[in-house]
Amino acid sequence: MTSFISDQDFTTPAHVRPSFSDEPPAAATNARRLPLTIVFLAAVWLVVSSVPFGYIGEGRYDAFWSDAVTGIALAVVTIIRLLQPSAAGFTPIIGGLAGWLLVAPLVLQYGWTASTANDVAVGILILTCAALGPEERSR
To answer: The whole model's pTM is what?
Structure first.
């Protein structure tokens, strides 16, 4: 038989104990993850779209590899960020990879092709989602 007193934690100071009322509702948590989910889907799109756009057929291996490697890196960073919300320092990495998508057509000289339009559109989408995404908490 337990009593009210035996169920209480008297060894941890009150200001350190977790309070269930301080936790955000599930809807708020899901709303904070939505921009990161969109970034992940955009990363998957980068990897998948490199074949249908025919980068290799045009002889543009650099465009193909740029999008494939950037998409995989974005997917890995976003998965880490989604699984570990307390992890800090990933927003600048996401922003840097999105910035690369915006300048890659100029650096690698794609010309105005479907790959350029794809990179610019996905880069703008990812930068927007990174800016609207959850704030990072340092430990």
So the answer is: 0.72
